[in-house]
Amino acid sequence: MDYKVLGLTSNETKAYEIMLRLGKTSAAHISKEAQIPYGRIYTVLESLEEKGLVRVVPEKTKKYIPTDPDKLHEIIDMKIKGLMDIDNHVKELKKIYEEKTIEPVLIAKGKSSFHKISAEIDTAEKYEYSIKYLFSLSPEFIRSAREKKVKGVEYRTLGRVDEETKPNLKEWMNLDKNIRPIENEGVAISIADDKHVMIGLIKSNTTMLIRDAAFAKVMKELFTRYYMNTDAPEMK
User: What is the mean pLDDT of residues 193-216?
Assistant: First the structure.
């Protein structure tokens, strides 16, 4: 077993595990059994002593004895705490990055603009509210909706309901029952996790991403008020 992740060198690992098998023993014996050059063994043992993994027995000929392997658990716990501290610091750095580096508004034009913009955002984890112009049956959209459903993401949709959209809408309602009608002449909107709003202007092939929590919350409130006062579409 390699304990480098715990801060032990290969020689320290070999020496400690050999000592667990030998018990109280001399540096020379450890050197021989662990196949560590005698010229290095005292440096190895001193390091293990500093880490609390070895105790010196002050006899006529100095002997060494390993401490309980539970000491390794203490080292592991310290490493875990250190990693958690680093993880929390990285999260703070990410906040600084998002506040100072990421552009709050992105605009892209062209038919491929949706994919360019969507690549800039994280997948919804809590909720995603959508306004649809077309209920596209693109495999990409269907797969995304299914993944969100499996993850327990709250998914609500307002969309255009007319003779053009009804064939696809029937398929969508097998997957998403939370669909309500709205008059829509060419806009697609996605509001997610109080983080961002993506707006597609269908007829001008323009997509906009607004990464602003205040704006996302207002849009969520407006969406919810309209949604709660609308009935499910009649499918004839």
Answer: 91
